[in-house]
Amino acid sequence: MAEIQLKALAHSYIANPVGPDDYAIRQLDHIWHKGGAYALLGPSGCGKSTMLNIISGLVQPSEGEVLFDGKRVNELSPRDRNIAQVFQFPVIYDSMTVYENLAFPLKNNKVPAAKIKARVQEIAEVLEIEDKLHKKAKNLTADEKQKVSMGRGLVREDVSAILFDEPLTVIDPQLKWKLRRKLKQIHEQFDITMVYVTHDQLEASTFADKIAVMYDGQIVQFGSPTELFEAPNHTFVGYFIGSPGMNIVEVERCSGGVRFGSIVLPLEAWQLELLERIKSRNVKVGIRPEFIEISPVVSDETYAAEVLDIEDLGTYKIVTTQLGGQEMKVRQNEEFDATIGARIDLLFPKQWLLLYVDEFLVQEKQP
Amino acid sequence: MNKIPDNRAWWLVLPVFLLVAFSALIPLMTVVNYSVQDIFGPGQAYYVGTEWFKEVLADERLRDSLVRQFVFSGFVLLIQIPLGIGVALMMPRSGIKGSLCLILIAIPLLIPWNVVGTIWQIFARGDIGLFGWGINQLGIDYNYTGDTLDAWLTVLLMDVWHWTPLVALLCYSGLRAIPEAFYQAAEIDRASKWAVFRYIQLPRLKSVLIIAVLLRFMDSFMIYIEPFVLTGGGPGSSTTFLSQTLTTMAIGQFDLGRAAAFSLIYFLIVLLISWLFFTAITHADKEK
């Protein structure tokens, strides 16, 4: 087990990178603490697999350092870093049985035979493949193969960390949920640092205590699922986390607040003051569909919007409205009903109306 | 869908039947025809039944050459298969070096058989051949035209030089087909180089190795031109392999009946052993 620190890390697959667009990972600093369960969340191509391969040593970073417990490991191969990694698609040694597959990493580490037997049995039970132990691995189904693949990652006790690279892609949805819980249990049981790469927010939040959201080669936010939901640090986090994502509207400054279309949103004093100091014209406001209220009465704080569409998602409804030429999604419970084209009055609670400058959240300085 | 029975459909099989007939059946039946007759000249053929077969099976000369043939093919497989795998493993994985290696290695395969024989016949000569001369200069008495062991070694060396590239190329293509993820997983699992070979590369080379073994067995079992040019089957008859014995019998002595019976037995041996190889290898594959 180890604390994994990434120091001024950057990586480019091009030999002589010029601009920031040439980098798969732009310069970042990050620490994965000892014994934590982390998720690395982001869309395809954001650099999350690259980062995982840099941690495990399969890829050499072009700049910066990787530290395990404070020691530089850049030059060490994966075998010397003593790290386990589970890949997106099952990798099994098909000439071996399931048992031999699971025992393989232990055998390579010269673990005594009795210990191997006990450990393989234990992991097979956790993954519920103990009845298949003596089957040839190549005759398994894709699900089972991936379990074996995962088992090989979990079987070693002394690893610095276990890295998962979208390990449940090939697994069918029902089993997916079960295996995710299983991984969580394994984490609680063995207390190993785990980093789990995924593009599925649900997968990330069920597995991890803390989620790092990656976008365009950078970690834009690192926090608990609640933090990511309530205070997205970057417009991308707002958009990516939550279903549907945050309503994000480009706005212009005006006296007393910001404006889009004919709509003027008043801001707090500290926000206004901050906007005055900052020159950037890239100003946005964001509010989650869950936090917008529909007011039964018209007041100074409500805004008249037109209902464009209502989606019934079973336990709740997503109402798409138009306000000041912008689409605004509102989440309502099952009882809500309105006709398309009807007028409703929206209320934006102040604490949930977030201000973004240059895509990043601006927050009030804590006194 | 309703099936309409119509025997005229058999006509559709005719083209294939004709093709197979001309390419295999008719020539083969001619040989079968010869093998049961004693032919003295045009119109002077007598039916002799299985007599030729009995005689051929009892023939000392043929039996010796059959043994030689098995020993030769055995050595060919024992040397060329591991060597070919080894060469393939050492070749660069990609890039200009990889392409260059491929070309260099493939060159012997492009040389006609009789030229290969001639090259080695000169190359291994003690007086003017670089190889033979070099060996003699080292103080080792080497003379492939006079010494049985030297002749054998030279024929084997020539075959290794000529055909190991085929095994290497087959294995190289097999190795390239292994996804990178397997090597990564092995690296993560801290597998040794040997374990990577034993558990990843070798199992995934299996299908190309079956082809390599079969091809090299059949080819070496039917070898003719190269030793014929190099040693002429000598010294004595020490490097006279089956096909040369057969040719001498059929064309040299014009002993058609005996040669035909022998050809059939020869053909059956190749067929039987190839079949044995194939079933043994594919059978081991199935779950117990």
Can you offer a commentary on this structure?
Chain A is of the alpha+beta class. Chain A folds into three domains: 1-83 and 160-242, P-loop containing nucleotide triphosphate hydrolases (Rossmann fold); 95-158; 243-361, OB fold (Dihydrolipoamide Acetyltransferase, E2P), CATH 2.40.50.140. Helices cover 26% and strands 31% of the residues of chain A. Chain A is built from ten helices and 22 strands. Chain A has helices spanning 48-56, 78-81, 98-108, 113-126, 142-154, 173-190, 201-207, 225-230, 235-240, 269-277, and strands at 4-11, 25-32, 37-41, 63-68, 71-72, 84-86, 162-165, 194-198, 210-215, 218-223, 247-250, 252-254, 257-260, 263-266, 283-287, 293-295, 302-312, 316-323, 326-333, 343-347, 354-357, 360-361. In chain A, strands 6-7-8-3-9-10 form a six-stranded mixed sheet, sandwiched between helices. In chain A, strands 16-20-17-18-19 form a five-stranded antiparallel sheet, with no helix packed on it. In chain A, helix 6 (173-190) links the parallel strand 7 (162-165) and strand 8. In chain A, helix 3 crosses helix 4 (113-126) and helix 3 (98-108) packs parallel to helix 5. With 288 residues, chain B is mainly alpha-helical. Chain B has one domain: MetI-like (MetI-like fold), CATH 1.10.3720. In chain B, 72% of the residues lie in helices and 3% in strands. Chain B is built from twelve helices and two strands. Chain B has helices at 14-35, 51-58, 60-90, 95-110, 113-123, 130-137, 148-176, 180-188, 193-221, 225-230, 242-252, 256-283, and strands at 37-41, 44-47. In chain B, a hairpin with a 2-residue loop joins strand 1 (37-41) and strand 2 (44-47). In chain B, helix 2 (51-58) crosses helix 12. The two termini of chain B are 41 Å apart.
